[in-house]
Amino acid sequence: MGYFRSAVDAMTGYVPGEQPPRGSQIIKLNSNENPYPPSPQVKAALQSLEVDNLRRYPDPYAKEFCQAISDTLQVPKDWIIVGNGSDDLLNLLIRACAEGQGRKVVYPAPSYVLYKTLAAMQTATVVEVPYPDSFQLPMADLVAAQGAITLIATPNSPSGHMVPLRDLRTLAQQVAGLVVIDEAYVDFAEFSALSLVQEFENVIVLRTLSKGYGLAGLRIGFGLANPTLLQGLFKVKDSYNVDEIAMALAAAAIRDQPYKIARANQVKASRTKLSQDLKHLGFSVLESHGNFVLATPGTNNAESLYLALKERGILIRYFNQPRLEDKLRISVGTDEENRILIEALASMMP
């Protein structure tokens, strides 16, 4: 007998973007992190923390942070669940709702590769419904798959496209299971699906502070859904899944909306220029609503460019999988980082 369940032995683990050593001069454009620091209010909150509070367990329901979310998004506090990053909440949802062939995990692909990993751990059947080249939601096939959970990332990674609100509403009307709307990149987008949680009991919207708020290192996210749905998730949640420090800093960050909006606007402006510069080099670039772009080189091999950039100390993301093997996902950096990337790519073009 081996140490692990057969499902764990058989599965492929999620591979995060490479993390260079702290303090290195490497330009890191491979994990969709915010190129700018978090709000100054986060630093102030960190400096004012009461160290003595750390000897006690944190609030299991993150009430202080939930109040900050409620005040900011105008959502009742009992419609909120907090997690150790939105990945924690994805894991929680799949553990609570998916199982075997009878309770499938369904999503359009390509999308966030962690979905498949989490389902494999739960031994839940996965149905990946291919996106058409237009990236319109493959509605009929998603509904026909009859998932216990249907996962929709919007904006989607790695493509960067958004799913129209009318399509999400139709999906919620037609599926019997949960519709999980993953809005990790919503701070760089034009609209949110948050209103759907009040229309449909089977919809939950996930958010994270990793992207728009520049707090990927803090690991905190939250879900918004009808309290009836959240009751079941609270049964499965780890008692103390978010620490005292994270809750305090996250509350400070989400209350400083002017700072977050200003930084997001900087990223969006840089995204536009980066896309234009890549097109001038012969890349085709999908319109993106996240803090990254998905680009296809004209005549160059995508993997070769990825490796050549890595040799020069520039990290981007290459996915060696169907429909992505000829593409590169590039996080939007500072204007200076983007300039260095474009100059490096220009020197590699034929």
**Structural class assignment:** alpha/beta
Can you give the helix content as a percent range? 25-40%
CATH superfamily of the largest domain, by name, is Type I PLP-dependent aspartate aminotransferase-like (Major domain)
Give the overall average pLDDT: 96
Going by CATH, the architecture of the largest domain would be: 3-Layer(aba) Sandwich
Number of helices: 13
Strand content: 15-25%
Any low-confidence stretches, pLDDT <50, length ≥5? Answer: none
Largest β-sheet summary: 7 strands, mixed
Order of helices and strands: HEHHEHEHEHEHEHEEHHHEEHEEH
CATH fold type of the largest domain:
Aspartate Aminotransferase, domain 2
Under the CATH scheme, which class of the largest domain?
Alpha Beta
CA(first)-CA(last) distance: 55 Å
Number of domains: 2
Number of strands: 12
> What best-fitting shape do the alpha-carbon axes yield?
globular
Strand order of the largest sheet: 2-8-7-6-5-3-4
Radius of gyration over C-alpha positions, nearest whole angstrom: 20 Å
